[in-house]
Structures are given as structure tokens and as C-alpha cells.
Amino acid sequence: MFHGSMVALVTPMADDGSVDYAALERLVAFHLDNGTDAIVAVGTTGESATLDFDEHCQVVRRVVELVRGRIPVIAGTGANSTQEAIELTRCGMEAGADACLLVTPYYNKPPQEGLYQHFRAIAEAVPVPQILYNVPGRTGVDMTTDTVERLAPFGNIIGLKDAHGSQERVQELVERVGDRLELYSGEDGAACEAMIAGYHGDISVTANVAPALMHEMCEAARNGEAERARDLDGRLRPLHQALFCQTSPIPVKWALYEMGLMGEAIRLPLVPLAHEYHDTVRAALRETGVL
Questions:
Q1: CB 125 within 8 A of CB 86
Q2: Is 253 an active-site residue?
Q3: Single pTM value for the model
Q4: Active site residue: 21, 107, 161, 253, which one?
Q5: What is the set of domains in the chain, with CATH numbers?
Q6: Which helix (H) or strand (E) segment is 41 a member of?
Q7: Could you say which residues form the signal peptide (predicted)?
Q8: In this predicted model, what pLDDT tens digit does every residue of 162-221 receive, in sequence order?
Q9: Is 106 a catalytic residue?
Q10: Residues marked as binding for pyruvate?
């Protein structure tokens, strides 16, 4: 259903902390003009943890309105409360999202059976297509391939975003569930090799600032043009690294500010990029031709 370069879109904010919908419109237009294959609204990069329920739903709704069906919109609707995740997922479906992205519950660190029951409950409650999201570095819990395989038979669980970061996990997932689920990388630095190995795309932070180049790299990797894909990925590598010099989305929001696409505001407890990293991010933008 979905493939290629799928941007994990930031949520632009005004200086008072409110959502900047004018800047959101500019960002969506930027991606539509530069080949992004799908937009993920209000995922981790979109500061889902600090948007309230109404803001969360409104940002998804507005992105859907701005895209007008030209590319898919995937709503981030995960939560560490199963009931809240069901409500957010229902909201994403009603807002018109093509699918919902559901992160493993964070902080409460459920066992594998808890993960299975959590995602089963959401799949049974809301019929929208759903993509599981495993990011142990953020959540403190790693959803095993065994658990993913148990969830694969649910008809509306259609994919997995994997940010485990291991090539061994990539191969394991491709071999065991690649014929039943669409697989997406959640690690920009590992995405090229994952797609060459059989993943369908990359849900990307880097695509926020280099959408055209990310689209080109993903397309080459998916088409089996390994040498060309690796060459393009080499050009993107400075961004893959610089955009994680502090906790994401701090660096990428500052990069978009530097590009003139939005302000630099971010919600507490995150703060704007420390001055000592400005040259690092700016140099990466210049090296890759973004500035």
C-alpha cells in the first residue's frame, strides 16, 4: 500500500507553543513539490508526546485536507494506554488518514504478551489499516519478530516500521513476515541497506529537509539499483548523522528554521538546538546541497 520515502513530518509551532498551521501548509507543499511518497503526521518526530488529543487530531485532519489525496497520509496514533491508542486511531481514521502508525507502548514496558494484546485490541476496535512501530531506543521495549509474526494474520495490520537498527533483524523480518507485511525502516542511516534487502520504504527524519534526494535514493534501492542507491545514500549521510546530534526532532526543526520554512519553536521538555551544534547541522545542509 505504501512505499518509498515517507516523511516523519515535524509539527511546526509558533513562539507561544501553539501549532503553526501556516507553516504546516508550507511544509506539506514542500513535500508535494519534491517527490515525498507519503506523509506521516504526528509521529514521534511530530512531537506526539506533547500534543494534546484535540491538537493531535486537528494536525492529522489538516494534513489530510492539504494533501487532498495526492499522496498517502499516515497518522501517528500510538500511546502507552491501549484505550487512548484506540481513541487516537479512531480519530485518525475519521480524519481521513489512509493508515495509522502505532508505536509500542512506552515507559510501562509491557511483556510480549502485553504487546500482542495491545495491538490486537486496536486492530479489532478500529478497521483502518495499521502499521506497527518498534523503536526500542525510545520506548524501552523491543517487540520481537515472534510477536510481529503473531500479529501478521490480522487483516488490517498491514506493516511494520522497524527502528531496531540491526541488519540481522532486517533479514529476520524479511524472511519471516516479508510476504505478509510491508516493512519500513525507521533508521535513516540503515534504510538504504534495509530496502536493498527487501524493505518497502523508509519513514524518515532526513526527508524533512532533503525530500527529493531521499525519494531518489529510496526509489533506486527499491528498484534493485544497489550501487546508485548507495551512492545517493552516501550523499545523504551527513544529514543522517547531523539530524541526530541531539534528541530528534530538535536538530531537524532547527534545520527547517535555517531553511526558512518555519520557526524554531519546540515544546518543553525539548528545547531548541544548542548553539554548539548549529555549525554541525548547517554544514550537513550545505554538504548535501540543501542550503
A1: yes
A2: no
A3: 0.97
A4: 161
A5: 4-225 (3.20.20.70)
A6: strand 38-41
A7: none
A8: 998 789 999 999 999 999 999 999 999 999 999 999 999 999 999 999 999 999 999 999
A9: no
A10: 45, 203
